[in-house]
């Protein structure tokens, strides 16, 4: 029989990883750190979803469990919105640096930063 304690470890891991993603977003961490924290959170979330799918039983302490899950879902939603805002800001900055970028399709960059319409990779 599954118990609340069985849910504790995966939930605590997800909460910790949510905090890591939040710190990366708020602290201006490098893109690699943010991607790493996000990937770890995604993997833990998928594992937790599989765990809950396998153990579809109501556990004692279910009210607290649901409240924790609701907090996690809310935090992930807020993080997603923050990432969308950052992406929009980066896109606006890119459009400022490279006017007409929105109209170009399949744009890639040569090593010296010249925009080209076909991908040639490094070295021409």
Main beta sheet: 2 strands, antiparallel
| Low-pLDDT sequence parts | 112-124
The best one-word shape is elongated
Structural class: mainly alpha
Roughly what percent helix? 55-70%
Distance between the termini: 63 Å
Number of domains: 1
Q: Biggest sheet: strands side by side, in what order?
A: 1-2
Provide the β-strand percentage band.
under 5%
Tally of separate helices: 3
Q: Report the order of strands and helices.
A: HHHEE
Compute the CA-based radius of gyration: 21 Å
> How many β strands by DSSP?
2
User: What is the overall pLDDT average?
Assistant: 78
Explain what you see.
- The chain is mainly α and 124 residues long.
- It has one domain.
- It has helices at 4-26, 31-54, 62-97; strands spanning 108-109, 115-116.
- A two-stranded antiparallel ribbon has the order 1-2.
- Helix 1 runs antiparallel to helix 2 (31-54) and helix 1 packs parallel to helix 3.
- It starts with a helix and ends in an 8-residue tail after the last strand.
- Residues 112-124 have low confidence and may be disordered.
- It comes from Hylemonella gracilis ATCC 19624.
- This is Flagellar protein FlgN.
Quick structural gist:
This protein is mainly alpha-helical.
Q: Helices, strands, pairings?
A:
Blueprint: H1 4-26, H2 31-54, H3 62-97, E1 108-109, E2 115-116
Antiparallel strand pairs: 1-2
Helix pairs in contact: 1-2, 1-3
Protein name: Flagellar protein FlgN
């Amino acid at each position: 029989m599954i118990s609340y304690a069985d849910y504790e470890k995966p939930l605590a891991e997800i909460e910790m990883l949510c905090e890591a993603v939040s710190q990366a977003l708020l602290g201006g961490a490098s893109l690699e750190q943010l991607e790493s924290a996000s990937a770890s959170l995604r993997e833990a979330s998928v594992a937790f979803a599989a765990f809950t799918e396998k153990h579809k039983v109501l556990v004692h302490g279910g009210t607290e469990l649901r409240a924790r899950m609701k907090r996690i879902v809310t935090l992930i939603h807020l993080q997603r919105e923050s990432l969308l805002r950052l992406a929009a800001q980066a896109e606006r900055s890119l459009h400022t640096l490279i006017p007409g970028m929105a109209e170009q399709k399949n744009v890639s960059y040569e090593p010296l930063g010249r925009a080209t319409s076909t991908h040639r990779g490094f070295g021409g």
